[in-house]
User: Fold this.
Amino acid sequence: MNTQAHAEEAHAGASVGTNIGIWVGLVAITGLEVFLAYEELQPSVMLSILVVLSVVKAAMIMSFFMHLKYEKLGLVLLLIPATIFCLCMMFIFFFPEAFRLLQMRPH
Assistant:
């Protein structure tokens, strides 16, 4: 098998059945998120669960629908520090404002 044929086979992506399975999984996670939105949970518990579910959904979308599962390791290693940097910036800039707004809320 020549190099071009091997590269095309590696980048062919997932099968139709796999894509349908991923789609059903994403719909199920979205349904669970909507269900949790109507439950009366403590905000910290609900937000923790929703963040974990969102990260799982994002990983599934990036891996299969954006075809990052089939990319070279270098690209993935480039995306991980960028994601960590964005999350750190969100924590630095959003959380102080959230605490300030929480203190302004009438009890």
